[in-house]
C-alpha cells in the first residue's frame, strides 16, 4: 500500500465501491471478452442489486464496458453513449448465493466479432475489484497487476512454454494460478506480471499449439 | 496481510532526523514508490486541482442521484456571504464546513472527486486544506506536502484498523479523513512531527464509535453533513495539538482502539443500511420510495 491508495483514485462519485469499483469491473469484463461488447446481460447480487440505481452503479458498469476510466465525466450519460455505440445492456437481480461478496456482478457478454464470455467479479472496497469466475473457471485476480488469462490444454509442458516466453521478454510473474475443470481438458492460467505484456508476446503465446486463447487485462 | 505500520515509529524517525513530518513521509514514499519527490508532489498537485473543481461544483448547487441531498453548500455560502458577522464559529470554521458540504454534494451528484480516503468522506481533507491555505497563504506545493502527510496517516490507519465503513463504521471513513486532515493541518501550520501524532490521536478519540448508517444505502444521508462535522473535528484537534496539548493515549493505541471498536460494531451499523438513521421510520420510508423495498 502507498499514499496514492489513500489519496485517490480520482473518480466520479458517489461511492468508491458502488461507482468506481463498478467502472473497473466493467473494464475488466471488456478486457476478458477481448473485443468491443455488442450485448451485455448484467446480473446484480446483494447490495449491488438493492441500491445500484442510487449509486449510479448501472451507469458505471456500462461506462466500464465502454472502456472508460473511473474519472470520466461522461459516466452519468453512459447509457446514451452505449446506444450510439450499438451496445445493448439489460440489468437483472441475481442471487449468487450466501458466499458471494455483497457487491458481486455477473456479466454475460457477446462481442462484435462473435465471442462470448461469462464473467463474475466483486467490488471489494475503495474501488478495488476481484474477479472470481471466468467461463465457469473459478479464479481470483484483482487487476492491480497486468494480468494474462491463458486458456490452454491441460498437457505437460504447457505452463513452461508460456512462462518461458514471458521470461525471454524480461517479464516477471508476480502471482500465478492454474485451474481446470477436469484432468486433460481445458485449463486456465492466470498470470499477474510486474511488467506490461506487449502485443508481440501475446501473439507468441497465442501461437503455441497448447494454447486456445489469450486475454490481457491492463494493470489498473 | 498488510504489514502493521506505526505512526509513532515514523514520528520518532522524523524527530530524530530533525525534519518535518511531510519531508520524512516524502522521503519514505520516494523509496517505496520509486518516484522522485517532484513526481510525487506533482501528482498530489493534480489531486488538488480535482478537489478545487469539486468544491466549485458543489457550490453551484447540485442535486444528488437519490434526491436526498443537495443545495446546502450554496445555502450556507450565501448565508455567510450576506451576514459574515453571524458566523458563530468564525470565518475559518464556516468556510471549512461550507467546502466540506460542497464536495460531499458534488460526490453525491456524480461529480468528479478524489477519494480521500473514500468517496463518502471526500469532503473533509479538501475543506480543511483549502481553508488553511487561505488563512496562511499557502502554495499548492505546500498543500501537496500536506496531502502526502494525510496519505501516510491513512496508510497507518488502513494497516492497523480500516478505512472502510463496511468494516469499521463511519469512524473508519469520516474519522480517518478527519485524522488525515488534522495531521496535515498541523504540519502545514509548522507543527512538529509529535504534534501531528497528537492531532491524529485526539480527532480519532473524538470520533470513536461513529456508525455507518446510510439511509437507503446511499452516500447521501447522513454522509454529506458528516463531512462537515469531521472537518470541524479536524480543526478542533489540530488547534489543540498546535497549542502543545497531548493525548493521554498514544496515537497507535488510539488507532488500534478504533479498529477494535469497528470490529465490535454490529453488522447493522456497518454500511448495510439496516440500523441507525437508515432504520428510522423516515429512513425506511425513503428507501421504500426510492427502491420500492425496505432493507430487511
UniProtKB/TrEMBL annotation, chain A:
Keywords, ordered alphabetically: 4Fe-4S, Gluconeogenesis, Iron, Iron-sulfur, Lyase, Metal-binding
Pathway: Carbohydrate biosynthesis; gluconeogenesis
Pfam families xrefs: ACT, SDH_beta
Cofactor list: [4Fe-4S] cluster
Statement: the UniProt record of this protein carries the keyword Oxidoreductase: no
Catalytic activity: L-serine = pyruvate + NH4(+)
The protein's name in its UniProt record: L-serine deaminase
Molecular functions (GO terms): 4 iron, 4 sulfur cluster binding; L-serine ammonia-lyase activity; metal ion binding
UniProt record similarity statement: Belongs to the iron-sulfur dependent L-serine dehydratase family.
GO biological process: gluconeogenesis
Domain annotation ACT: ranges: 147-219
UniProtKB/TrEMBL annotation, chain B:
Catalytic activity: L-serine = pyruvate + NH4(+)
InterPro entries reported for this sequence: Fe-S_L-Ser (IPR051318), Ser_deHydtase-like_asu (IPR005130), Ser_deHydtase_asu (IPR004642)
Entry superkingdom: Bacteria
GO molecular function: 4 iron, 4 sulfur cluster binding; L-serine ammonia-lyase activity; metal ion binding
GO biological process: gluconeogenesis
Enzyme class at the top of the EC tree: lyase
Pfam families in the record: SDH_alpha
Domain (Serine dehydratase-like alpha subunit): residue spans on this chain: 16-278
EC number: 4.3.1.17
Keywords in alphabetical order: 4Fe-4S, Gluconeogenesis, Iron, Iron-sulfur, Lyase, Metal-binding
Pathway: Carbohydrate biosynthesis; gluconeogenesis
Swiss-Prot/TrEMBL cofactor(s): [4Fe-4S] cluster
Protein family: Belongs to the iron-sulfur dependent L-serine dehydratase family.
Name of the protein this chain belongs to: L-serine dehydratase
Gene encoding the protein: sdaAA
Amino acid at each position: 500500500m502507498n499514499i496514492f491508495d489513500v489519496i485517490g483514485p480520482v473518480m466520479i462519485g458517489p461511492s468508491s465501491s458502488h461507482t468506481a469499483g463498478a467502472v473497473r469491473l466493467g473494464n475488466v469484463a471488456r478486457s476478458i471478452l477481448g473485443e468491443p461488447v455488442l450485448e451485455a446481460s448484467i446480473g446484480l447480487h446483494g447490495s449491488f442489486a438493492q441500491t445500484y440505481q442510487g449509486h449510479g452503479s448501472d451507469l458505471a458498469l456500462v461506462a466500464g464496458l465502454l472502456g472508460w476510466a473511473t474519472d470520466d465525466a461522461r459516466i452519468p450519460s453512459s447509457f446514451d453513449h452505449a446506444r450510439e455505440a450499438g451496445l445493448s445492456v439489460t440489468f437483472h437481480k441475481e442471487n449468487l448465493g450466501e458466499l458471494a461478496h455483497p457487491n458481486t456482478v455477473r456479466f454475460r457478454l457477446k462481442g462484435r466479432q462473435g465471442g462470448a464470455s461469462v464473467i463474475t467479479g466483486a467490488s471489494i472496497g475503495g474501488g478495488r475489484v476481484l474477479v472470481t469466475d471466468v467461463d465457469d473457471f473459478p479464479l481470483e485476480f484483482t487487476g492491480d497487476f497486468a494480468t494474462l488469462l491463458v486458456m490452454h490444454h491441460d498437457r505437460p509442458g504447457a505452463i513452461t512454454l508460456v512462462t518461458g516466453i514471458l521470461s525471454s521478454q524480461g517479464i516477471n510473474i508476480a502471482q500465478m494460478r492454474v485451474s481446470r475443470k477436469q484432468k486433460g481438458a481445458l485449463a486456465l492460467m492466470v498470470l499477474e506480471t510486474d511488467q506490461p505484456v506487449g502485443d508481440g508476446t501475446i501473439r507468441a503465446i497465442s501461437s503455441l499449439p497448447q494454447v486456445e486463447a489469450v486475454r490481457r487485462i491492463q494493470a489498473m | 496481510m498488510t504489514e502493521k505500520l506505526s505512526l509513532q515509529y515514523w514520528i520518532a524517525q522524523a524527530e530524530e532526523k530533525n525534519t518535518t513530518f511531510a519531508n520524512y513521509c516524502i522521503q519514505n514514499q520516494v523509496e517505496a514508490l520509486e518516484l522522485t519527490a517532484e513526481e510525487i508532489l506533482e501528482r498530489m498537485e493534480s489531486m488538488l486541482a480535482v478537489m478545487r473543481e469539486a468544491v466549485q461544483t458543489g457550490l453551484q448547487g447540485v442535486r444528488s442521484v437519490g434526491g436526498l441531498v443537495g443545495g446546502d453548500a450554496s445555502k450556507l455560502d450565501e448565508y455567510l456571504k450576506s451576514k459574515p458577522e453571524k458566523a458563530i464559529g468564525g470565518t475559518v470554521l464556516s468556510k471549512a464546513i461550507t467546502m466540506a458540504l460542497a464536495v460531499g454534494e458534488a460526490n453525491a451528484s456524480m461529480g468528479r472527486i478524489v477519494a480521500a480516503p473514500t468517496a463518502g468522506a471526500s469532503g473533509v481533507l479538501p475543506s480543511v486544506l483549502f481553508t488553511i491555505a487561505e488563512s496562511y497563504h499557502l502554495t499548492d506545493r505546500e498543500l501537496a506536502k500536506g496531502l502526502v502527510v494525510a496519505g501516510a496517516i491513512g496508510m497507518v490507519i488502513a494497516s492497523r484498523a480500516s478505512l472502510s465503513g463496511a468494516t469499521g463504521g463511519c469512524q473508519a471513513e469520516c474519522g480517518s479523513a478527519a485524522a488525515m486532515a488534522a495531521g496535515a493541518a498541523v504540519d502545514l501550520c509548522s507543527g512538529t512531527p509529535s504534534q501531528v501524532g497528537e492531532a491524529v490521536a485526539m480527532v480519532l478519540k473524538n470520533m470513536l464509535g461513529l456508525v455507518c448508517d446510510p439511509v437507503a444505502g446511499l452516500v447521501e444521508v447522513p454522509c454529506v453533513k458528516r463531512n462537515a462535522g469531521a472537518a470541524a473535528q479536524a480543526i478542533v484537534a489540530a488547534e489543540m495539538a498546535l497549542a502543545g496539548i497531548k493525548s493521554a493515549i498514544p496515537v497507535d493505541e488510539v488507532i488500534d482502539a478504533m479498529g477494535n471498536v469497528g470490529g465490535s460494531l454490529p453488522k447493522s451499523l456497518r454500511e448495510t443500511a439496516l440500523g441507525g438513521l437508515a432504520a428510522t421510520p423516515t429512513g425506511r420510508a425513503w428507501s421504500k420510495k426510492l427502491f420500492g423495498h425496505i432493507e430487511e
